[in-house]
Inverse folding.
């Protein structure tokens, strides 16, 4: 089955700096790559997703890039704010929506 | 608020017991997914139902079973509980059977087996 690796496991950034989280996947058939944000006591919430026919997607301060050849994708958060502090999960799917999640990255934004 | 409702929020039970977790999907969503989140295993896909029928199975133990009812709510049944079953159990829903569709997660049920 699909195996998704996520790095780093923890990330501490100064407010206003950028944060980058990287994921790799094993199954070249994967074609849907969502990113979820999980705040304490809540369920994961989709923040951005990308499909295999797109190399990059941006939504305000968040961007995701995908390199299908290398089988890796990344989340970029610019101008980080304290409310960006959370656990971020990458995931991969082969269209049947059986999401395989990375282990998560705990992001802390220091004021 | 995602629109997905899970009950109960917390559950404490003893080993060997059986529990039922309930999920009400967002209005109009036909697919329901169950995930288990534990500290050592992360978020693991358990099972998916679409319009009452099982569609996909993940790492679901034989002691666990699920179903989706005609009103589209779903229940996850966990039996012969072990300490290792302690985890957060999430339900998610989406409008379609699969493929490029955002899944909305509920707030989860925290199960503690003592």
């Amino acid at each position: 089955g699909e195996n998704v690796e996520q790095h780093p496991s923890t990330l501490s950034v100064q407010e206003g700096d950028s944060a980058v989280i990287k994921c790799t996947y094993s199954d070249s058939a994967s074609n849907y790559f969502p990113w979820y944000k999980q705040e304490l006591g809540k369920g994961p919430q989709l923040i951005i997703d990308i499909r295999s026919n797109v190399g990059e997607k941006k939504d305000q301060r968040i961007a995701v890039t995908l390199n299908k050849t290398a089988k890796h994708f990344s989340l970029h958060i610019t101008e980080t704010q304290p409310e960006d502090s959370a656990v971020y999960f990458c995931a991969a799917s082969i269209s049947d929506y059986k999401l395989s999640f990375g282990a998560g990255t705990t992001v802390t934004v220091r004021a | 608020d995602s629109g997905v409702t899970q009950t109960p929020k917390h559950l404490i039970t003893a080993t060997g017991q059986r529990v039922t977790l309930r999920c009400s999907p967002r209005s109009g969503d036909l697919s329901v997914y169950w995930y288990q989140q534990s500290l050592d295993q992360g978020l693991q896909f358990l099972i998916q139902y679409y319009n009452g029928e099982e569609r996909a199975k993940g790492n679901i133990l034989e002691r666990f079973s699920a179903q989706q009812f005609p009103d589209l709510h779903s229940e996850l049944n966990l039996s012969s509980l072990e300490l290792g079953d302690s985890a957060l159990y999430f339900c998610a829903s989406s409008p379609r059977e699969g493929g490029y569709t955002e899944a909305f997660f509920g707030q989860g049920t925290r199960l503690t087996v003592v």
Notes: Chain B touches chain A at residues 2, 4, 31, 33, 35, 42-45, 48, 55-56, 58, 90, 92, 94, 97-108 (CB under 8 Å). DSSP finds no helices and eleven strands in chain B. The longest strand of chain B covers residues 42-50.
